[in-house]
Recover the amino acids of this structure.
């Protein structure tokens, strides 16, 4: 199970730029706390957060639409994969069924993965729809496991944010965290951590999946 933004696609930069664009329109310069709270959350929740920061709670829906519109434009103009993402996905796809669990709109996730040549490696792309709750709730991960016909405890989530790691943990999945350094909260929840998907130990572990149980994270 892979997260998309910040794990497979280097689109967190686009979300950051989109947030800046929207807040600039309201004359708001967000502080460090805003950036910490906004990472990895669902775009509707981010819209509400921006509205609170701007002191315009009544404009949450409008700011959400502005945020999503700005992100779509930025992501489509410059899709970029994260370091090592293509190699890891291609290697893993030859061993196990894969799925994506994301807080982004489904069409955005599929368009980004398609542009990177990765979409075809995934059996399912799961995003919050209907009554499904976004991360940090477990819904997208439990739904992905159900679609693959696998118990959550026998899956492996790969995530880059605290919000996403919490989602996978709440679903009962082991987690590998990805990123240049981890916060104490992330480190406490993740079963392992790599600085990028180019990690040589991770690559060797995936290559060995044909020789031993791939659900073991140790």
């Amino acid at each position: 199970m892979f997260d998309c933004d910040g794990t497979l696609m280097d689109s967190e930069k686009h979300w950051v730029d989109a947030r800046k664009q929207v807040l600039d329109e309201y004359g708001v310069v967000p502080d460090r706390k805003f950036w910490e709270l906004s990472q990895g959350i669902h775009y509707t929740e981010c819209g509400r957060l921006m509205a609170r920061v701007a002191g315009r709670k009544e404009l949450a829906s409008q700011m959400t639409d502005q945020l999503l519109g700005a992100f779509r434009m930025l992501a489509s103009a410059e899709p970029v994969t994260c370091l090592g993402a293509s190699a890891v996905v291609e290697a893993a796809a030859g061993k196990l069924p894969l799925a994506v669990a994301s807080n982004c709109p489904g069409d955005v996730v599929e368009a980004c993965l398609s542009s990177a040549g990765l979409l075809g490696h995934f059996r399912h792309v799961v995003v919050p729809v209907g009554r499904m709750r976004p991360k940090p709730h477990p819904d997208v991960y439990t739904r992905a496991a159900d679609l693959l016909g696998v118990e959550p405890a026998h899956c492996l989530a790969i995530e880059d944010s605290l919000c996403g790691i919490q989602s996978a943990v709440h679903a009962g999945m082991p987690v590998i965290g990805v990123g240049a350094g981890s916060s104490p909260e992330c480190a406490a929840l993740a079963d392992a951590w790599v600085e990028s998907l180019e990690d040589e130990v991770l690559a060797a572990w995936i290559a060995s999946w044909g020789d031993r149980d791939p659900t073991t994270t140790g």
The chain has two domains: 12-77, 85-207. Residues 60-77 form the longest helix (18 residues). The first strand starts at residue 99 and ends at 101. The domain at 85-207 is CATH 3.40.50.1000 (Rossmann fold).
